[in-house]
């Protein structure tokens, strides 16, 4: 779709993110950013946004925190013919525990790093070398007034700065992101859990 001309009228009532796109939103910060922007576009234009390809609880947790509430994927059911779908819908308890509250758009950079797969960090390093600032560094600077009082804030902030040299050295030597960034990921997860509590 071309924006800025008659095509920007969005003659649709829902927007769907393809499963190939969803599969990359935990490994590619650019895809994550576009997914967040599409959710905002849907909210601002009154359109539903559906994520196709939500496969596991972690995908669901991230999608919900981003503000997404509609989904399809193997987490719910594989594709079914119409009769089988009707039978499945009648026999399945479709109630679910309440979704976690959506993060404000300003907090999406935190989610990028909390939910990123270890393989995504290599892509993230390449991405950071081509942009003007690190979104997480900016997030820490801009959101301290909101979350600086949380018990894990300083630990997460320090863990971020301890991880920065790993990002730099990864251009020189291979890094095992799963092991090397565990303290960073653990600290961000703890902070994210506390942010969840603040948002309830």
Written overview of the protein:
The chain has 200 residues and is mainly α. The chain folds into two domains: 6-91, no CATH class; 105-199. Helices cover 56% and strands 6% of the residues. It contains ten helices and three strands. A three-stranded parallel sheet has the order 1-2-3. Strand 2, helix 3 (57-66) and strand 3 (70-72) form a beta-alpha-beta unit. It starts with 13 loop residues before the first strand and ends with a helix. Mean pLDDT is 83; it is low at 1-5.
Summarize the structure.
By secondary structure, this protein is mostly helical. It has helices spanning about 20, 30-45, 55-65, 80-90, 110-115, 120-130, 135-145, 155-170, 175-180, 180-200; strands at about 15, 50, 70.
Percent of residues in helices: 55-70%
Summarize model confidence as the mean pLDDT: 83
Radius of gyration: 19 Å
> What is the H/E order?
EHHEHEHHHHHHH
Number of separate helices: 10
How many angstroms does the end-to-end distance come to? 37 Å
Strand line-up across the major sheet: 1-2-3
User: What overall form do the CA principal axes indicate?
Assistant: globular
Domain module count: 2
Annotation, overall tally of beta strands:
3
Structural class by sheet pairing and helices? mainly alpha
- Tell me what portion of residues adopts beta-strand conformation: 5-15%
Biggest sheet character: 3 strands, parallel
| Residue windows where pLDDT falls under 50 for at least 5 positions | 1-5
């Amino acid at each position: 779709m071309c924006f800025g001309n008659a095509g920007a009228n969005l003659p649709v009532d829902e927007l769907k993110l393809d499963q190939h796109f969803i599969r990359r939103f935990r490994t590619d910060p650019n895809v994550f950013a576009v997914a967040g922007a599409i959710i905002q576009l849907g909210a601002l234009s009154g359109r539903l946004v559906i994520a196709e390809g939500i496969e596991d609880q972690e995908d669901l947790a991230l999608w919900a925190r981003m503000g997404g509430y509609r989904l399809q994927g193997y987490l719910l059911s594989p594709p079914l013919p119409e009769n089988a779908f009707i039978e499945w819908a009648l026999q399945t308890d479709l109630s679910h525990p309440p979704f976690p509250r959506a993060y404000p758009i300003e907090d999406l950079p935190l989610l990028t790093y909390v939910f990123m797969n270890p393989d995504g960090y290599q892509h993230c390093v390449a991405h950071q070398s081509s942009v003007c600032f690190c979104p997480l560094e900016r997030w820490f600077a801009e959101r301290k007034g909101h979350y600086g009082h949380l018990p894990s804030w300083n630990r997460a902030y320090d863990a971020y700065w301890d991880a920065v040299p790993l990002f730099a050295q990864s251009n020189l030597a291979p890094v095992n992101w799963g092991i090397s960034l565990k303290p960073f990921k653990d600290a961000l997860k703890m902070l994210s859990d506390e942010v969840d509590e603040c948002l309830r």
